[in-house]
Amino acid sequence: MTIPTLTNDTAYTITACDQYTWNGQTYTATGTYTYDHSQPGSSCTNVDTLYLTINNSNSGTEVQTVCDTYTWHGITYTATTNTPTYIEQNSAGCDSVVTLNLTINYSSHNSYTQNACDSYTWHGQTYTSTGVYTHDYTNTAFTMTPHTPSPPVTCTPGTGRPIQRQAHTPTTTASPVLPAPMLIPCT
Fold it and tell me: What range defines the domain where residue 130 resides?
């Protein structure tokens, strides 16, 4: 008498990110894997087959160099950092980690008070009336910074007027710099 062989085989099709654990074994590569859980001496076979697709997550670094502040995924940063991370899905549907490598350069603001007779020329522009004027320039950190002098004032010809200069403290200097007073003659 012949005893027929009975099968109780099952096939699984799985897609996973990075790794998949099946029957106590961890797989990290795409492939076809089998697991025989037949009982010794039994006429029944029990072999399961796993058709596994492994998609890989990835990681990356976003490098930014900016002036003063930077907003990344809704969070505003005001200091240099390389620790923020953001998890997003890649095209394979796996979570991927992006790390922000951020350099913040700080702008500086200098303010000067200038008194002059009749007119005052500043950065190639001649001013003949009182007002507040600004001039943007790039500092050594390549950050646009406003530079504000005070406008000219009138004086009586034949007299001298001191040019009053206000101390300025760039954000990168700990103590103010105060230029020496100057006397400009009126004509």
Answer: 110-166
